[in-house]
Amino acid sequence: MTINRKAIVLFLQELRSSVRQLALAIVCWTLLIFLWSDRLLPVLQAHVGGKLYFFSVAEPFLAHVKLSFFTALFVLMPLLLRALWRALALPFGMSTLRRAVFTVATTILFYSGALFCYQLTLPYGIQFLLGFGGETLTPAISINRFANFISIFVLAFGLLFELPVFMIFCTSTGLVSCATFMRHRRYAVLIIAILAAVLTPTPDVVNMALMGCPLYFLYELGIVLIRIFRLDRNARAARAKQAPTEEGQVGLKS
Fold first, then answer.
1. Measured CA angle at 109 (ends 106, 112), to 5 deg
2. What pLDDT sits at residue 254?
3. What is the pTM of this model?
């Protein structure tokens, strides 16, 4: 199966129908969480082990707004993923059951990746960076930058952990074969290493490995699941059944 213009149009139309509802939900949840952001910030601040500072009049307000917005995205991620798979279902002919399975799987992997980042990667990375201060330097961490730092990395880890599900989707729809994933392992390692270097809070090998190793494991897991469920063969069989039908339709039109 190839991505044609019609499939892209169907995807965008279906996605557009959910944008307004999702935007309204994000705004409402951001306002709701903003009322409790004073209690949320100390939980994140525990990773620093010290005070946070602000260097402009509006910085505390903006930091609370950003933190509330990213938390709203974190809470509403199941709805966002549901809207995404609903938009992909129509152009790629996905059944309701398959769409539900993809939604649940990506949701579980997203929260697993976010939890992995919050509990393991971020504490180590923050302690590593603050360790360069020594006894002569006192850290004065901006509350605004700290909110950005925490939110972006947690969301990024969560999204990257969804890799095997999208690999399965690409294979089951015929976009990419399992042989392609297996043949391009070295490129996958290179891309994962680049992502680990860019997204991890510190450039040291240990912290990069904390992100790169799970990602490569998920890449291999995606290949294993594709082979176990024979998704590549099923995709080829579906295309083979579809081809005679399309030829018959062309013959009738002619």
1. 150
2. 44
3. 0.84
